Amino acid sequence: MNATDPTSRAAADRRPPRILVVDDERSMRELLAIVLRREGYEVLLAENGREAVEALEREPVDLLISDIKMPDMSGVDVLRAAKRVDRDVLGIMITAFASTETAVEAMRLGACDYLSKPFDIDLLKMKVREKIENRQLRQENVLLKRTLGLSHQFSNIIGRSEAMLEVFKMTETVARTNSTILLTGESGTGKGLVAQAIHFHSLRREKPMVSLNCGAMPENLLESEMFGHMRGSFTGADTNKKGLLEVAEKGTIFLDEIGEMSAVMQVKLLRVLQERRFRRVGGLEEVQADIRVIAATNQDLTKAVAEGRFREDLYYRINVIPITLPPLRDRREDIPLLAEHFLSKYAEQMGKDVSGISHEVMELLVRHEWPGNIRELENVIERAVALEATPAILVESLPSAIRGSAPRSGSASTDTLPDGGFDLEAHVKEIERGYIAEALKRAGGVQVKAADLLGMSFRSFRYYVKKYNLR
Q1: What is the residue range of 432's domain?
Q2: Are residues 284 and 344 in the same domain?
Q3: Residue 177 CB: number of other CB atoms within 10 A?
Q4: For the segment 239-261, what is each residue's pLDDT rounded down to a tens digit?
């Protein structure tokens, strides 16, 4: 049975993650089997590439750990075979012949990570846990969107962080009401997508949804665009024209950047919300407005009201149901999901065989502050897919602003080395533990913030917190 069909997917949900270990060294296979089974994984073993391919064709596998150098076929060939069975399978390559060139080549050929022998068992367990969690997150996100009834129009609304789950829940709850909604959040957080989700799951979904950017045009054009105009009402008005309020009759109008609306237009919009009627520019006849209004802004409207830039009565009219979208930096656990989604989207659009993101790249993406939020991340991944010549996005394909957040190497001082020597491993662990504990203290116990202080991914940081028994 193909691992990608629904039946095998459902079966996968009921079993522990399955890992296939491929190595021609018996001792290495047995060691990895013991370590991984203790972690709760189901482990399959193969001593060569041929056995591995046979195992892959028999049953689905979540993660492949393979030696690169083997007598009959390489680990990369095994990974290729695994990808043919299930394109979402993950791969970690292991080799005793460590070199930068070997590592880059492994990533170019589709591996999602790379380790050189001898490797630290704790590091291996951390990488395995991270890869399995990323795979489960992608699957859970698909199930979540199905549960909420989100169709393909909303495929960019991705996340399983607490903040986004609240947004999903609120969206589902208010969609079938007719209440006015105010979406707030920084630019690029996906306010327009949430507005679409609300409309397409509302009782008005069979009617039009129209969008109007209140900050994109001068007041006179905005008025004509919203309310329409009569012939001869101003220079260039050669015919009668319906405004978007009429076009959206019995549907939804999305007023983006409502904080940019002029004082005069605020008064006119207030009347529409209060009386559900309006006049075209230059017209005398009143037109009914059976519409639902969804407004959005990246401004603090309470501050704008206090400063006299926004009408208080209008604010209360549009702020019936507020929904706040979190910035990407406050939901870093969603970055891998979003990055994988945009990778799939643009690889398909461009017809390119780019199916993975290297570990180093993902670390940089999670660490970045993303002032442009989801929109910026999407642009970065689109650019990387366009430039990448390998099956996995490498650091070289990222913009310099993202690459610049990579840790810089430096030389360690040996001036303090005692004459009699000392236990380096224990000393490094103590320093490591101290930094982890101090970061937790400075972040008030919030692990996401503490991880950011140390330039680490949240999952890596969580691993070290558990390793050193810190709270």
Answers
A1: 425-467
A2: no
A3: 14
A4: 888 889 999 999 999 999 999 99
Reading the block at residue 178, the tokens are 């007719």
Residues 305 and 336 in one domain: no
Digit-coded pLDDT (tens) for 145-201 = 444 444 434 445 788 888 888 898 898 889 999 999 999 999 999 999 999 989 988
- Residue 87: count other Cβ atoms within 10 Å of its Cβ: 11
- Per-residue pLDDT averaged across 456-467, rounded? 77
Integer CA distances (angstroms), 307 to 170, 264, 303, 304, in order = 30, 17, 6, 5
Closest C-alpha among 297, 228, 212 to residue 260 = 297
Same domain, 457 and 378: no
Pairing of strands 277-279, 286-288: antiparallel
Residues 200 and 312 in one domain: yes
Q: How far is CA 369 from CA 188, 328, 329, 333, 383, in A?
A: 13, 8, 6, 13, 18
Q: Answer whether residue 238 is part of any domain.
A: yes
Average pLDDT, the chain: 82
Instruction: Supply angle C-alpha 23, 113, 437, rounded to 5.
Output: 115
What residue spans of 148-188 are helical by DSSP H? 162-174
Residues 62 and 123 reside in one and the same domain: yes
Final residue of a structural domain among 270, 301, 325: 325
pLDDT at 70: 85
Domain identity same for 279 and 370: no
Domain assignment present for residue 408? The answer is no
